[in-house]
Amino acid sequence: MSILQSLSQLTAENAVALTIKKLMQYKLAHKLITLHPKRTPQARLAGTYISKMKGRGMEFDEARHYQAGDDIRAIDWRVTARTGKTHTKIFREERERPVFIATDVSATMQFGTQLQLKSVLAGHLASVLAWSAKARGDRVGGLAFNSQGHREIKPKSQDSAILHLLTATCQLQQSQPLQMSGNENPLLEAVKRLRRLAKPGSLVCIISDFQHFNPEIKQHLRQLTKHCEVRIFGISDPLETAQQQHNSPPILVTDGIESALRVVKSQAAGSRYADIQAQIASLGIMQHWLCASMPLVTQLTAGLIDPTRNLAKVEV
Questions:
Q1: What CA–CA distance (Å, rounded) separates 267 from 155?
Q2: Where in the chain are the domains?
Q3: Residue 284: left (phi > 0), alpha (psi -120 to 50), or beta?
């Protein structure tokens, strides 16, 4: 069985609870998604990441005419001999890019009608993003949060940082109560923390269903985009985006222990998601939306997440 086949198959346990064993498997599938930067990295630490800034790096960029003040050690003697004019080599400076992955496993994410919970899909996505960033030489850290608390992991270039981030995500997902008061907004608190944590030039990936999206969150996202590259990864469930009929039949729901028939009443849930996408698009933020009814690797291999373009206009 290939790694992609293994990742696409979920047991009953893996569909409702995140496990570190399952998340670590995505290390072998990091090529399913890429995180090319959209702007010049501004991190101050030198590293293995090729930036658009020209300096004393290891990656050759171009040869140009020698100018007063250029380092004579950088003279390109072959071009100089061929043209008869002194040329100097210019290199691309190598820098690391801090990557923050914020994963929402709060109460609204503990929901799923087909295949898996939204929080499970969010955890799988966080894992493949983390390993993809690590493979590119970035420093990976993040923020995992539920309705009761959060865990912050400082970006580092070691695998241990990813392990700590994924472990925290699993723990918070499994400890999240199914019922919470409606006055809490864990997404708002997470975005506030990201503004304090993310340094200029960082890549910030936010994974959530954005059920708590409001004007205050939008304002914080606007401020965050001034200094960082922000990418939104939305998670939805088919029942949330379907247009409900007035006389919808009762649906059997369960919390894993008790079961009951409930009539699900929707107030234009699909329109709500479309409105959220439109507001995010107005900020110029790249966004991708995934559905919990399909395995993550299926959506990645099918091209449902294209890192080269904005999917804001795609209907969920």
A1: 40
A2: 3-41+98-301, 51-95
A3: left
Q: Is the Cβ–Cβ distance between 145 and 105 less than 8 Å?
A: yes
Which of 22-26, 130-134, 174-178 is predicted least confidently?
174-178
CA torsion through residues 7, 9, 14, 15, sign: positive
Write out the two tokens for 125: 């996505």
Tokens 């723990």 correspond to what residue?
171
Write the CATH number of the domain with boundaries 3-41+98-301: 3.40.50.410
Helix (H, G, I), strand (E, B) or coil at 301: helix
The token duo for 307 is: 């890192």
Query: Structure tokens of 238?
Result: 């088919």
- Stated as kind and residue range, the H or E segment containing 270 is helix 269-281
Burial (CB count <10 Å: 0-12, 13-18, 19+), residue 148: middle
Paired strand residues for 206: 102, 232
What is the token pair recorded at 289?
A: 């939306």
Beta carbons within 10 angstroms of residue 168's beta carbon: 20
Check residue 173 and give its pLDDT.
95
pLDDT band at 5, cuts 50/70/90?
confident
**94 three-state secondary structure:** strand
* DSSP state at residue 34: -
Beta strand 59-65 pairing with 251-254: unpaired
Place of tokens 């206009």: 313
Contact 101, 59 (CB under 8 A): no
CB 232 within 8 A of CB 286: yes
